[in-house]
Every structure is written in structure tokens, then in C-alpha cells.
Design brief:
The chain is mostly helical. It has one helix at residues 23-61. Helix content is 63%, strand content 0%. The N and C termini lie far apart (80 Å).
Length: 62
């Protein structure tokens, strides 16, 4: 038996590669992506604002 032969391996159809999405599914995925990006950007703004306030507070204490 040679190494690298396909003997005994069943070939299956790869349906996940050729799968097409409906407009509703694409819209739902884009909506989820936009919501998560919005959430993370809001968290970043809160974090940076908090850091700026802490820096300003430290500046006025000294």
C-alpha cells in the first residue's frame, strides 16, 4: 500500500461551501455584528472616559 492514496476514504458532498444565505439571514447577521460593534465601542468610550477622569483627579490631588 502506498502512502497518500485515497483508498477507503468516502468522498462526501461539501454542502457548507456552496450554501447560500437568504436576505433575512444576511440582515440578521449584519444586525448582530452592528450591535456587537456598537456595544464594544460604547465600552471602550466608557473605559477611556473613566481613565481620563482618574488622570484628571490624580492631577488635581497633587
Amino acid at each position: 500500500m502506498r502512502i497518500g492514496t485515497n483508498k477507503g476514504i468516502k468522498k462526501t458532498k461539501q454542502t457548507h461551501i456552496n450554501q447560500s444565505f437568504s436576505k433575512e439571514e444576511v440582515a440578521a447577521h449584519l444586525n448582530l455584528l452592528a450591535n456587537s460593534l456598537g456595544m464594544y465601542s460604547m465600552l471602550f468610550l466608557l473605559w477611556s472616559h473613566n481613565a481620563a477622569l482618574r488622570c484628571e483627579q490624580r492631577y488635581h490631588e497633587t
